[in-house]
Design goal:
Structural class: alpha+beta
Shape: globular
Largest sheet: 6 strands, antiparallel
CATH architecture of the largest domain: 3-Layer(aba) Sandwich
CATH superfamily of the largest domain: HUPs
CATH class of the largest domain: Alpha Beta
CATH topology of the largest domain: Rossmann fold
Helix content: 40-55%
Number of helices: 29
Distance between the termini: 30 Å
Strand order of the largest sheet: 2-3-1-9-8-10
Radius of gyration: 24 Å
Strand content: 5-15%
Number of domains: 3
Length: 635
């Protein structure tokens, strides 16, 4: 697990300054505190920051093959690397290390760019092929590991694990992309491949990018994999449960290879509990587990984590986080490089900080809800779909559109009476409705928030286009499969994986996600949707599969989530800061927002008239991003 960086002269053989290469590489030193190194030659600079996990003695990077013709910088883990070694040795390749890095080098030499099809794991890497004069970039299928890049005005292609590597180059132009601002205030993050800056991009998951020296055109990323929802597996319930347990076991076992202390997050939820139970069955020694609790009982799951820890006699560590733990705003803005509004980044940062005191590698349960239909919003969407399928669109749109306009936004009311959003969604088609439900700020809210000047800059763009683009590629008519696919492409990558990667690497902690193994994902996509959501119960087949291994209360209690009390903060200890930020000069001078709307949000929330904690938090995190941008080197 590491941080990588590099510069490639696409048109010539300029010499890159070693001090500059070192500076942009070391700005991500938190990703790899153990070692760092550079490789420079005419037209190329490669950098690496290492967090030693496998082959501590000889796994250094940048790493080259024996004749120096192929070199790599690599971030991640290849879990099947030991399986590939005998095959590559049979082809004549000699190994000087025990690292998965060298396996990628020889796999590329043997199979070229098609090597990505042979790799099972989380990865982002860049391979320099001196003979072909090419630079080959690749990112793992589920987007667990990040890759950012840009073309600079002088023809240099620059890349790095974090966006701050790219923006640290003095020639990078930090112009904000208005479309990314629209995306952020919809989703709470900037979805791939867009970045907050107009001139930067993220390499999408399951894509490669091949650059050849001397070619003036900027190549586009090429996909090499996609999940195909067939939902046609004839397997019965009992066999599906047994096979699911075995596939999870195999995925977990692959992720237990490490030469450093290894443990797991244990939140008390179904997914992390299933991972820990599986680890316990594979280990002769107690599993190291880490959990955090909150001093506010409404957000505290630690008692359920303790049940699992007691059952499997894990070496369990618990730390209690105060409910006013909001001092990380500026830290998070620097770590995430872009505006990022998921407030669960705060407890995620804390649990990673705590885990790193005891382990270097931690397994998580991330990805289970997306793959197995665990979110409440999936069940809501399926219910809405049943109504949509019974009424023609020509009837639904005027009927429910009118109801959505006149029904009050009842934030204060019990959930069953908050029908405004449902009425609005019923007037839409499936993709638009799911976009509506996934929007932190919905279209009408963004319309009020943005200034007239900024709306002109958008030129008619709407973040719905992100969902439309992915839905076009989904190749499924199954309602659950469609929204799972959309989450794979947006929420899982842009929110969940981004959150965990930055929070973990801030503490030099490697996190592995067995429920995101692409082989497991492919198999789950063959299961009928009614095995995943049954009678209003999400993750049905998963819960049934782990009934023999987990307490009933852990499996079937209401989902709590990794939340923080935002509304309370913004009316209490954060109230003054919120007011000064939202009504301050920085947000006013950027020109994106309507001043009257900002005042209304602040006043109504402060008086308790409405709960505007979501837009206010998003505005505060956007302001924090602007502040970091202003103070960054070279700004």
């Amino acid at each position: 697990m590491c941080g990588i960086s590099g510069m490639f002269d696409t048109m010539g053989l300029r010499d890159y300054d070693r001090a500059l290469a070192a500076r942009i590489n070391n700005i991500q030193a938190h990703r790899g505190p153990d070692e760092d190194d550079l490789h420079l030659e005419p037209g190329l600079a490669l950098g690496h920051r290492r967090l030693s996990v496998i082959d501590l003695a000889t796994g250094q990077q940048p790493q080259f093959n024996a004749d120096g013709s192929v070199g790599i910088v690599f971030n991640g883990e290849i879990y099947n690397f030991q399986e590939l070694v005998p095959e590559l040795k049979a082809l004549g390749y000699l190994f000087r290390t025990r690292s998965d890095t060298e396996v990628i080098v020889h796999a590329y030499s043997a199979w070229g760019t098609a090597c990505v099809h042979r790799l099972r794991g989380m990865f982002a890497f860049a391979i320099w092929d001196r003979r072909q004069q090419t630079l080959f970039l690749a990112r793992d299928r589920m987007g667990v590991k990040p890759m950012h890049y840009a073309w600079l005005p002088d023809g240099t292609f620059i890349f790095g694990s974090e966006l701050k590597v790219v923006t640290a180059h003095p020639a990078f132009v930090r112009d904000i992309d208005p479309l990314a601002v629209e995306d952020y205030f919809t989703f709470g993050y900037v979805p791939d491949p867009r970045c907050i800056y107009r001139n930067a991009r993220k390499l999408p998951p399951a894509h490669t990018l091949l650059l050849r020296r001397g070619e003036a055109d900027q190549p586009e990323p090429v996909p090499y994999w996609d999940v195909q929802f067939t939902n046609d597996n004839p397997i019965d319930q009992a066999d599906a449960q047994a096979e699911l347990r075995e596939r999870v076991r195999e995925s977990v076992k692959l992720r237990l290879i490490a030469d450093v202390p290894l443990g797991a997050f244990l939140s008390g939820g179904v997914d992390s509990s299933a991972v820990v139970a599986t680890m316990a069955g594979l280990s002769d020694t107690p599993v190291h587990t880490c959990a955090i609790g909150f001093d506010d009982p409404r957000f505290n799951e630690s008692e359920f984590a303790q049940q699992v820890a007691d059952r499997y006699q894990t070496d369990h560590r618990l730390e209690i986080v105060k409910s006013d733990d909001f001092d990380l705003i500026d830290t998070l803005a620097w770590l995430y490089d872009e505006p990022y509004a998921d407030s669960s980044a705060i407890p995620t940062y804390r649990v990673c900080e705590m885990a790193r005191k005891h382990v270097t590698v931690a397994l998580s349960g991330d990805g289970g809800d997306e793959s197995l239909g665990g979110y409440r919003r999936y069940r809501m969407h399926l219910g809405e779909e049943r109504v949509r399928n019974r009424l023609p669109h020509g009837v639904r749109r005027p009927l429910f559109g009118a109801l959505g306009q006149i029904y009050p936004k009842a934030d204060w009311a019990p959930r069953m009476f908050r029908a405004k959003t449902t009425f609005q969604a019923m007037a839409m088609d499936s993709v638009e409705a799911y976009h509506h439900s996934m929007s932190h700020l919905r279209a009408d809210q963004r319309e009020r928030l943005f200034s007239s000047t900024f709306k002109r800059q958008l030129g008619g763009y709407c973040s719905l286009e992100v969902f439309r683009r992915h839905a076009h590629q989904a190749q499924t008519d199954d309602p659950l499969a469609l929204v799972q696919y959309l989450d794979y492409k947006t929420w899982l990558v842009g929110d969940i994986n981004t959150k965990v990667d930055r929070a973990a690497m801030a503490h030099s902690l490697e996190v592995r996600e067995p429920l995101m193994d692409h082989k497991l994902i492919e198999w789950l996509a063959t299961l009928p949707s009614d095995l995943k959501v049954q009678g209003g119960e999400g993750k049905a087949v998963f819960k049934k599969a782990f009934e023999p291994l987990l307490p009933h209360d852990v499996l079937y209690r209401p989902k709590m989530g990794f939340s923080v009390p935002l509304a309370k903060w913004l009316r209490g200890p954060l109230a003054d800061r919120m007011r000064k930020t939202v009504l301050g000069d920085r947000l006013a001078q950027c020109g994106y927002f309507d001043p009257a709307c900002l005042r209304t949000l602040v006043e109504e929330h402060s008086r308790g008239v409405r709960d505007h904690s979501t837009p206010l938090w998003m505005l505060m995190m956007f302001d924090a991003f602007l502040r970091v941008r202003e103070n960054a080197p070279g700004a």
